[in-house]
Amino acid sequence: MIFSQDRNTLRLMYVHAWQKRLQNLPMDALEHMIADVIAMHPEYHALLGEEEASLAFEETPHQGTSNPFLHLGMHLALREQISTDRPAGIRAAYIKLVQRSGDMMDAEHCMIACLLRALQDAAGSEPDEQSYLECICRMV
Fold it and tell me: Quick check: 109 and 54 in contact, CB under 8 A?
């Protein structure tokens, strides 16, 4: 489901993982990962606690907030990159950032800024992994 192109399917994946966490129900590994990221973002708890609100959410430039589903997805993508060390060196850079900042979430948010930039620069083509990694390493 995580690779679905259907926005509602993806959003429900987040909502259901969060509901399972709150109700202490069994979860698979992906649901655990999703719920862990959500747990670290209390600003999204109310939205993700309501299925209808989550499905109806529309990001507007006036809100002054980011799209919670995009933001959570970036955390998940980043964690996958770190776990596989792709691009090579990202895991070591992450460890250094966590050590420097003393906070895993701060380190991830710094890295997400680089990931977003790499995706925007790619403009529909393959992102430049080297530039992406260099952006992260400059933060270390």
Answer: no
